Amino acid sequence: MPASKALPSCSVLLLSGGRGQRMGGHDKGLLEWQGRPLIAWLHDLTRPMSDDLIISCNRNNERYAPYADQLVADEDEDFQGPLAGIRAGMAAARHEQMLVLPCDAPLVDRALIESLLAQSGSQPVVIRQGNYWQPLFCLLPTRLKDDLEQAWQSGERSPQRWFGKLSPIAVECPAGDARLANFNTPETLTAHPLPG
Fold first, then answer.
1. In CATH terms, is domain 10-191 a member of 3.40.1170.60?
2. What is the pLDDT of residues 135-179, one digit of tens each?
3. What H or E segment, with its residue span, contains residue 144?
4. Burial class of 63 by CB neighbour count within 10 A (0 to 12, 13 to 18, 19+)
5. Order of strands across the sheet that contains 132-141
6. pLDDT tens digits for 41-83?
7. 3-state class of 99 per DSSP?
């Protein structure tokens, strides 16, 4: 058998801790697309890339556990948004870099992830489409957890604003890049066929 490729030294955080308001309160990561839960698509993509796969979830832990090495939850129970999930993930991550992806973007591919990992260093790396940052598709140095904690304690809840203060490195994607499509409404779940 060929020698296995060394795992990259990054943690992976899959964000699945939202309220699911646009999905009628359903847990988005567990909704099925093409016969499988959304979380399964992201798990299959990122599992070979890390030995520290973290899922941020605030319910249904028993259903998420098979897809993760660690589960984390928001400190507060009132769904304070994705920055809360990033904060929980940063506190648990075991590597110097943490790749962040939302659970409702099953069309993300390895090339997109590798474009983030290629910029790994001391600054956050974030997908940008034109003038719009996509902060939930990013690579974060985990040394920033203290900065995030300080921002959180001062009342910051916006990933956009927090990233904006950190001079992130942009990975440019075209405006209509299907890989960034969020399946966050019932309509988008049924409208997207499998690519290829």
1. no
2. 999 999 999 999 999 999 999 999 999 998 999 999 999 988 999
3. none
4. middle
5. 70-72, 53-56, 10-15, 97-102, 132-141, 125-129, 169-172
6. 999 999 999 999 999 998 899 999 999 999 999 877 665 789 9
7. strand
How far apart (Å, rounded) are the C-alpha atoms in residues 151 and 116? 24
Residues 6+ apart with CB under 8 A from 155: none
Structure tokens at 10: 């990054």
pTM, full prediction: 0.88
> CA nearest 98: which of 8, 192, 190, 176?
8
* C-beta separation of 175 from 159 below 8 A: no
Of how many residues is the chain composed? 196
Cα–Cα dist 141/137, whole Å: 14
In this structure, what DSSP letter does residue 25 have? T
Kindly tell me the sign of the dihedral angle through the C-alpha atoms of 118, 124, 129, 130.
negative
